[in-house]
Amino acid sequence: MNNLYDFKREVVWVFTRFSILVIVNIILFIAFKSGYMNQQFYGLAVKIWYLFYIFFGYLLFKRYAINKIAELIHKFLTIHFKGEVDSRGFKIIVLKYSKILEIVSIILAAMFGLSVFVNLSAFWNIFQSVFILVISFFIGLFTSSVLGNIIAYHAITQSNIISIGDRVRVGKIYGDITSMGPFFTNIKTIKNEVVSIPNMTITNNHLKNYSVHKEILIHIPVSLGYDVDKEKSKKLLISAAMRTKNILKTPEPFVLFLELGNYSVTYEINAYTTEPHGLVNTKSELIDNILDEFSKAKTEILSPEFTVFRQGKKHEK
């Protein structure tokens, strides 16, 4: 029922305005034919009234074309990025770009109005060439990664998944975000290198943000032989974690069993830290402490390959 009411209201809106234009046009024609208006004055009046036709055409374009295009784009983006970004964020994006389209339509309407009084044939020839180039550019834009990077940028900024200063990992790139733009996001790595990553790469790859949560879990796998007592191994790993700077005492570090190999058991020491920017140094110190603890306990940390090699040597002897 509401849709029918809206349709009738729109029909009335268009019909009343168009009727006024036609009626005034008829009145001018009757006045000219009746001798109340000379040829020169009638020609000027028709040209002026022609401007109202152009303005009416602009209103129709804005009311139905621009708004409908904006609505369709907003619907497409909302469905495409469903669950990732608040739809209100996309509404702001669409309104901004529809405003640009509205300004362009105003300029075109003004040029049509000016052509009523001035011969702009030479200008229109140039304009047509420029217009074709612009359309070709936008077609290329919409079929390339440029538009994808712009959409990805708005998706990232509106969802607040990352921000400047965050410690992140994108693929193999690990470091701090220094700047974000419509096409690229710059990350300063721990090696003091600045890497520019396309925004589409960020949205298409597995992104890890270590600055989102207060506590970050560090985990390191360690392979030990079956001859090493498992309780002793767990105590040594936890002791190494407790000695490490920036490792939290609460919640306490814990050990998981990852795999039972042919010649070794894979343990994993897990510990929490609240220092995302010192993650690499903390992990390095933890590994150093693990080596120290097992060295003091005279317990070897061996990879499966080396274990087989060592057992083969013993067998030869």
Give your account of this protein's structure.
- This protein is an alpha+beta fold and 317 residues long.
- It has helices at 2-33, 39-80, 87-117, 121-142, 145-159, 199-204, 230-243, 279-296, 304-316, and strands at 167-170, 173-180, 184-189, 194-198, 207-209, 216-225, 254-260, 264-273.
- The strands form two sheets. It has a five-stranded antiparallel sheet with strand order 4-3-2-1-5.
- A hairpin with a 4-residue loop joins strand 3 (184-189) and strand 4.
- The longest helix is centred in the N-terminal third of the chain and has 42 residues, at 39-80.
Salient structural properties:
61% helix, disordered C terminus, 3 domains, 17% strand, Alpha-Beta Plaits, rod-shaped, alpha+beta, SH3 type barrels, 9 helices, 317 residues
Mean pLDDT: 77
The strands making up the biggest β-sheet line up spatially as: 4-3-2-1-5
Q: State the share of residues found in helices, binned by percent.
A: 55-70%
Largest sheet: 5 strands, antiparallel
CA-based gyration radius: 35 Å
How many DSSP-defined strands? 8
Q: Catalogue the unreliable spans.
A: 82-86, 304-317
What are the secondary-structure elements, in order, as H or E?
Answer: HHHHHEEEEHEEHEEHH
Number of domains: 3
| SS summary, helix count | 9
- What best-fitting shape do the alpha-carbon axes yield? rod-shaped
Roughly what fraction of the amino acids lie in strands? Answer: 15-25%
Give the end-to-end Cα distance, rounded to a whole number of Å: 94 Å
Structural class, judged by helices and strands?
alpha+beta
